[in-house]
Amino acid sequence: MARTAEIKRKTGETDISLTLNVDGSGKADVVTGVGFLDHMLTLFARHGLFDLTVRCEGDLHVDQHHTVEDVGICLGMAILQAVGDKRGIVRYGSVTLPMDESLVMVSLDLSGRAFMVCNLDTRGRTIGPFDMELVPEFYQAVAGNALMNLHVHQFYGSNGHHLVEASFKAFGRALDAATRHDERVTGVPSTKGVL
Questions:
Q1: Does residue 184 belong to any structural domain of this protein?
Q2: Tens of pLDDT, residues 133-187
Q3: CA neighbor of 55 nearest in space, from 83, 34, 40
Q4: Residues of the chain below pLDDT 70
Q5: Are 45 and 60 in contact (CB under 8 A)?
Q6: DSSP secondary structure letter of residue 22
Q7: Could you tell me which of 145, 144, 142, 137 has the C-alpha nearest to residue 172?
Q8: What's the confidence (pLDDT) of residue 195?
Q9: Sheet with 102-109, edge to edge strand ranges
Q10: How much is the pLDDT for 194?
């Protein structure tokens, strides 16, 4: 059975359509109006081997916040929908990924409980016109809507682009690991019997 999702979400701030195929090949077609976000989501899809399409029209005349956060909401909703009842999946994923001088780890649990910790050095920093403080907002929106436990940990690094890029690549790979099927797992991977 295909593990796919299609999300449409329209508010007074954004109008988003997003499709996700968890068992894809890494194809991405992303147009959000925020170039850096498009780049990061393309990396996420490529390294996680997900097929991802995103179209977003947002109130960029205000700023990028609503677009970035709302795309994160839709991606989280899509992950939750595509993974379904989580029968037979690995559930956990953790990847430590280098990007030049930066080293970032992403660990996650498709637990059915939302929690996010991000210690990337983002305060007061920009990457071109992109506000790095939106990165934790994006991850919070994903985790909250995917009902996932998500930790994004910076070991070290100085270049903002490298830090964020390492985190998105690691996120893709960790999510790929967590959503894989393990033939040894019967039912859901929890002693509670539900996730």
A1: no
A2: 999 999 999 999 999 999 999 999 999 999 999 999 999 999 999 999 999 998 9
A3: 34
A4: none
A5: no
A6: T
A7: 142
A8: 87
A9: 92-99, 102-109, 149-156, 115-118
A10: 86
Give a yes or no: residue 190 inside a domain.
Answer: no
We report the CATH number of the domain holding residue 164 as 3.30.230.40
Q: What is the pLDDT of residue 193?
A: 83
Q: How many CA atoms are closer than 13 Å to the CA of 95, on its beta-carbon side?
A: 20
* R_g of the chain computed on alpha carbons: 16
pTM more than 0.90: yes
- Are residues 128 and 40 in contact, defined by beta-carbon separation less than 8 angstroms? no
Q: Is 142 within a domain?
A: yes
189 alpha-carbon distance from chain centroid: 22
Q: Could you tell me if residue 188 is inside a domain?
A: no
Q: Domain of residue 29: give its range.
A: 4-179
Q: How many domains does the chain have?
A: 1
List b or e across 122-139, with b for residues whose CB sees 16 or more CB atoms inside 10 angstroms.
beeeebeebbbebbbbbb
